[in-house]
Amino acid sequence: MTENTEGVKEVKGFMPRAVRYAQRVDDDFAAGISELYKAIWSERENGLQMKEKHLISFSIACSKNNAESATKILERLKKFGATREEIEDAMMIATWTSGVQYFTDFSIVILEEMDRLGF
């Protein structure tokens, strides 16, 4: 990996699959994707904090009925000190934007993972 792609680990906390896959295609492509990750996930003055970014990502994953992604994001939310109430609010927002059926589909998986993680 190049220095440019390695910087993503510092910002995101791990090497995203998209960067690893892009590296196999082309170094410049991987560098471009790395810069996208860094632009999104770096903390900026007066910008969203990491916990807020992950709450938004969590809500979007839930609204798209992507329980696998949402449960992975829960681990990041735990790391950044999110409360159970904040996560429940994000779940309710996902329900508002996507509908009750999606809540029914993703909620049990998320609630069980929240309990496992100690929220």
TrEMBL record:
Lineage of producing organism: Archaea, Methanobacteriati, Methanobacteriota, Stenosarchaea group, Methanomicrobia
Segments forming domain Carboxymuconolactone decarboxylase-like: 28-101
Pfam families xrefs: CMD
Name of the molecule in the record: Carboxymuconolactone decarboxylase
Organism, as annotated: Methanosalsum zhilinae (strain DSM 4017 / NBRC 107636 / OCM 62 / WeN5) (Methanohalophilus zhilinae)
InterPro entries: AhpD-like (IPR029032), CMD-like (IPR003779)
GO molecular function, one term: peroxiredoxin activity
Domain of life: Archaea
